[in-house]
Amino acid sequence: MASVGRIPVVGVEPTLEQGRWPAKAVVGEEVPITATIFREGHDKEGANVLVLRPDGKRDYLPMPLDNFGNSLYSASYVPRVEGLHRFRVEAWSDPYATWVHAASAKVAASVDVELMLDEGVLVLGRALNELRLPRKAVAVLGEAIAALQDEAASPAARLAPAVGDEVHAVLRRYPLRDWVSRSPEYPLMVQRERALASAWYEFFPRSEGAYQDDDGTWISGTLATASERLKGIAAMGFDVAYLTPIHPIGTTFRKGRNNTLTTEPGDPGSPYAIGAPEGGHDAVHPELGTMDDFVAFVDEARTQGLEVALDLALQCSPDHPWVTEHPEWFTTRLDGTIAYAENPPKKYQDIYPLNFDNDPEGIYIAIRDMLQVWIDAGVTLFRVDNPHTKPLVFWERLLADVAQRHPEVIFLSEAFTRPAMMHTLAKIGFHQSYTYFTWRPTVRELAEYLTEVSGPASYYMRPNFWPTTHDILTPDMQAGGAPLFAARAVIAATGSPSYGIYTGYEFVENVPRPGVEEQIDNEKYEYRPRDWSAADEHGLVSLLTTLNRARSEHIALRRLRGLTVHQTTDEQILCFSKRVPGEFTMSGEDDIVIVVVSLDPRFAREGLVTLDMDALELDEDAVLTVKDYISGSTYTWEREFFVRLDPGRMAHVAAVTRIAE
Amino acid sequence: MASVGRIPVVGVEPTLEQGRWPAKAVVGEEVPITATIFREGHDKEGANVLVLRPDGKRDYLPMPLDNFGNSLYSASYVPRVEGLHRFRVEAWSDPYATWVHAASAKVAASVDVELMLDEGVLVLGRALNELRLPRKAVAVLGEAIAALQDEAASPAARLAPAVGDEVHAVLRRYPLRDWVSRSPEYPLMVQRERALASAWYEFFPRSEGAYQDDDGTWISGTLATASERLKGIAAMGFDVAYLTPIHPIGTTFRKGRNNTLTTEPGDPGSPYAIGAPEGGHDAVHPELGTMDDFVAFVDEARTQGLEVALDLALQCSPDHPWVTEHPEWFTTRLDGTIAYAENPPKKYQDIYPLNFDNDPEGIYIAIRDMLQVWIDAGVTLFRVDNPHTKPLVFWERLLADVAQRHPEVIFLSEAFTRPAMMHTLAKIGFHQSYTYFTWRPTVRELAEYLTEVSGPASYYMRPNFWPTTHDILTPDMQAGGAPLFAARAVIAATGSPSYGIYTGYEFVENVPRPGVEEQIDNEKYEYRPRDWSAADEHGLVSLLTTLNRARSEHIALRRLRGLTVHQTTDEQILCFSKRVPGEFTMSGEDDIVIVVVSLDPRFAREGLVTLDMDALELDEDAVLTVKDYISGSTYTWEREFFVRLDPGRMAHVAAVTRIAE
Asked: Is pLDDT above 70 for B2?
């Protein structure tokens, strides 16, 4: 059992099960580090954080008292380099602060005056002798000692410099530390900023440029035709072009249009039924092109300022080369057949799941090598399909391996399942996570969820908010038309530092297949070329462009913490703000963005918003000048302000440009 | 970094910083052990707890799923022996449960019927081959296999036994466990029951039998005269007789009556100013008697069924032998004087604090040896005065040392300070803690506090509730008279498994020294003999006797967890219940005690109580017959019931004797 320590340090955060897994951060992100520190009796304690960086350097952070009642000390660390950092909290007896407290009280009360002044000479003398101080600090302490010894002056005057701001500043930076007690070292994994903040745009490359020839036969789009879409995606300001699987598609039990069990000639099949004689997960579907075409696609994306994300769906069609080469990687049933996916009594005969327990090493190496093919081709992000149906030990090993060799590669977990699994996948290494955002339709639920994801979970799980996906069209989105598409795009893009849009969102594609919460004529089973020249008919192209511009201009929108939900008088109006304090912005000014959204797609809504001025660290009577990205207008808002939103104008995304008292 | 494990186990409780300190329990106490367990895909997981006992035995506990949404598994452990236990949670793949789920669904849907039945033969055959089963279990599985293979029967009939209760019961107790994943081992310190449940009675032995002779000179009571009081204390049903310090008292700067700086002849001084030429912490004050007298006192206490607690106040009067023998154990100031206690500008010149940093080893050994003197004399509990003014490393070492050699010895921490210190003292080894109960005067505050102390903190901090002490007389207790003394005794004795009464409570001694929250003519500074023949004038002797009888008859009152606060319609009426489920009581019946208390000492209060039937695990329309210890009456209560309390009858302490639906 670890001892409590001479100056106890307990409850250090952020930690996951005392360092079982690292907390996460990105370069430039403020990481609050807190600990409960206290000591016996009346003597004073002090604290600091020591960060051991992967480049061998050490960062020393003074850690002041934050809350006396809770004995909470805190410091903020802003990592500057990527890689695994370790940090520890150090607490110590502070002889200078102890003396300041006693001397200030006693000299004022004319008790033990000479003794107190003599003790001051002693403690500042220790600082001079024991600490490596810069020349200026030496001078400051020397003058304070001289004043303490100046018997011609009054006691108060003799004391003043030694307890004053200048000496305090020196000893805050270079403290005298007795009985230093150290917490364990805790890991903090620092990644590039895109691991936290990113705007994804998902599309099926085969739909881009697909067409029917004269006899009605569909001709697939290609990577080449799909790359023509990249300019439009980049123009809207997205960061990531995410492609659904691009591999050969099986024909055995291929699904037809609208997920039917029978196909018609020309049905392209689901790209999630991966594998055919032409190849498996490391191959490009011949109708899309070649590996060279893929590399060219990635190059074009880079030219447009986009990174490319691939879908990683670890399952095989019955025609996948692995099925014949490695039948031992699947589950063979007692009757000798290979088990297809099923959730009894439902059957998914076009899919063979891998059985990771049969040959964990063989499967692991095959998948690792397959990933390397795509990383070598320039892929820097993977959207992982259903990671919660594969063993977590597999992911933990794979993600650590890839992080070691390619720390820039980002994995997004698509685990729509119970919270324990979703959160643990984040803890063991996924950089980003799909979340429950898609199923939080009401103001109350969104308020709670925004608060939850930006709270303590923010140290390990980075949400990626999607209003829809190719798999998901929720009842509210089926019914709410363009206004709700606008509203939920606003919340996704501003409530979370990462969000994603599935192509066709611009056209308000909201018709479901009856009885299912996904689109009719789902692109998973057919080609869906779109006429991009008409894409802004609902104003959504403009809106997405505006949102991405606001995100690029405001660091607060690229951070997860610093979110506050504010009260409104209308049950359909949601208000929240994001804030980054001035010490962590380029300008040195607080960055505050206030988002107000209506969730009523049919009627105008109006009411009062009451800002939580404490949370914003604003005076109660501060007057804010805000610039609304949506309307382009400038408003003056106070603690309580009136808003009116309607289906034609569903939101304000208001950046604070001026604060007057 | 520890791997997540093939079947992940996270968030095991109760643990303190992942085993930095042990959780606490007493023999016979129910300890819920919980963990978050889940796995990939659709296959089933199972879990168990393994407890490694200090006697070398192992206890295996099945750990069923408690909450699907939270992936929470739980088991209850009831320790049978004292000492340091270790426990771990084991999670595994459950091939039997996986097969039951698939076979039940598919046979019902007539899919893969033969395959499913064959797989059942395989999985039950594995159980027969791989597990050490008792003969009866072998027969149960054998019959199920025979049924699966009975081709003459219908598929449903063939399946039924293999998925039925009997086979389930066998495999719950003796599971087939694949891919067993183990949590770390966590410590659980098990102590004797009194460490959790105890009723303390505090008194100043010198007051018992003290008298004034004819010229008005006070003659001190002695250990011999004080021992005459033990019978009365035992008759009220207390467990512990706690004596304020019994050591020689210094004369230098001795405090006079009512804490004055000057003494008058005959003033006995504060027993907390320890040490005089006659001896220090290991000596008996000559006016109280000798060490032999003390041993006789302990013997008499034992005869009466009482244990003896001593006050451990680690400070010295200027006349303490250590001051001359070991001046290095104190702080010497620059002017050569020894530092007295002070909280600038306040001075406490009659007290020299030890400086534990000057000679930690020497001081430690002296105190350890001094404690041994009292343990050898029969002391089994120590009430530690202001432990938060001494280093925690000192306590951690001392308490571990004593626990090793004398695990029966109990330490009560008197740390009226910030929560972090109070809680950490409990974590590092104190068995019991004074709490904020004394400063929680209102129904709302008490409801919150009762909920807090019986929640997660209950795994390390055991509260000891005191309505008053020799140091504390809160404003409400100054004003509330006998009714409030009654009410707060009820809450202390029933709200917490440990509580304490400071002598004189029977007489409603509630007059404060002006401007201070303690009694006038405080017994710390003078003799206060009392006429015990008149002690029940306010009915408080009877009440305390009744409360202690209720405690002895109801295990629920001797446990900390299982407390629920219930709603009442009157803001001055508090209702809470304590409950121990039947599986942990001797009778096998649930033990439920419902406490209803008025906090209004002046007026009658009436209103409705609404019981939280879910928390009590009762049907909504259950009818309870209760026996009220206070009135002696029997009532019939339902979910909602009416109460009327008044200054003459401030509480019900109602044990449920019968539950009808």
From this structure: no
Q: Measured between alpha carbons, how far is A180 from A89 in angstroms, rounded to an integer?
A: 10
Question: How many residues belong to chain B?
Answer: 661
Give yes or no: residues A22 and A168 share one domain.
no
| A122 and B CB contact within 8 Å | yes
- Mean pLDDT value of segment A109-138: 96
Which structure tokens are listed for B384? 């530690």
| CATH code (residue A33) | 2.60.40.10
Total number of domains constituting chain A: 3
Are residues A565 and A646 both part of a single domain? yes
Question: Is B650 inside any structural domain?
Answer: yes
Q: What is the mean pLDDT of residues A488-513?
A: 98
Active site residue B414: yes
How close is the nearest chain B Cα to the Cα of A41, in Å?
A: 4
Which CATH number is B107's domain given?
Answer: 1.20.58.80
Structure tokens at B460: 């390390």
- Cβ pair B18:A17 closer than 8 A: yes
Cβ atoms of residues A490 and A189 within 8 Å = no
The verdict on B645 and B585 lying in the same domain is: yes
Q: In a 3-state reduction of DSSP, which class is residue B486?
A: helix
Q: Which helix (H) or strand (E) holds B198?
A: strand B198-203
Same domain? For B592 and B636 the reply is yes
Catalytic residue among B30, B119, B414, B526: B414
- What is the sign of the dihedral through the CA atoms of B605, B610, B613 and B618? positive
- A652 domain-assigned: yes
pLDDT tens digits for range A420-454: 999 999 999 999 999 999 999 999 999 999 999 99
Interface of B with A in 14-53 (CB under 8 A): 17-22, 36-42
Q: Least CB-CB distance to A421: which of B38, B396, B418?
A: B38
Q: Is B385 a catalytic residue?
A: yes
Chain A residues whose beta carbon lies within 8 Å of the beta carbon of residue B389: 40-42
> Phi and psi of A346, rounded to 5°?
-75, 145
Query: What is the count of residue pairs from A and B with beta carbons less than 8 Å apart?
Result: 153
**Same domain membership, residue A67 and residue A100:** no
Residue A67 makes CB contacts below 8 A (sequence gap 6+) with none
B45 belongs to a structural domain: yes
Domain stop point among A191, A225, A246: A191
Do A33 and A141 share a domain, yes or no? Answer: no
Looking at the partner chain, which of B21, B42, B391 has a beta carbon nearest the beta carbon of A1?
B21
pLDDT digits (tens, 9 = 90+) for B154-202: 999 999 999 999 999 999 999 999 999 999 999 999 999 999 999 999 9
Of B137, B164, B191, which residue is a domain's last?
B191
- List phi, psi (to 5°) of A388: -75, 5
Which residue in the set B8, B69, B119 is minimally distant from A424, CB to CB? B8
Q: Mark which residues 377-436 of A lie under 8 Å from B by CB.
A: 388-393, 396, 418-421, 424, 427-428
Residues 194-253 of B with CB under 8 A from A: none
Q: Do A10 and B420 count as a contact with CB atoms less than 8 A apart?
A: yes
Inter-chain touch B5–A105, beta carbons under 8 Å = no
- Residue B627 domain-assigned (yes or no): yes
Model's pTM, two decimal places?
0.95
Q: Are residues A90 and A144 in the same domain?
A: no
Q: In this complex, is the C-beta atom of B346 within 8 Å of any C-beta atom belonging to chain A?
A: no
The tokens of B427 are what? 């974590």
Question: Which token pair is A288?
Answer: 């899309």
Complex confidence, ipTM = 0.94
CB B103 within 8 A of CB A334: no
Domain identity same for A38 and A158: no
So what's the pLDDT on residue A1?
46
**Nearest residue on chain A to B116, judged by CA atoms?**
A334
Q: B427 to chain A nearest CA, in Å?
A: 9
Residue A549 CB partners (closer than 8 Å, separation 6+):
A237, A629
Supply the range of the domain harboring residue B604: 561-660
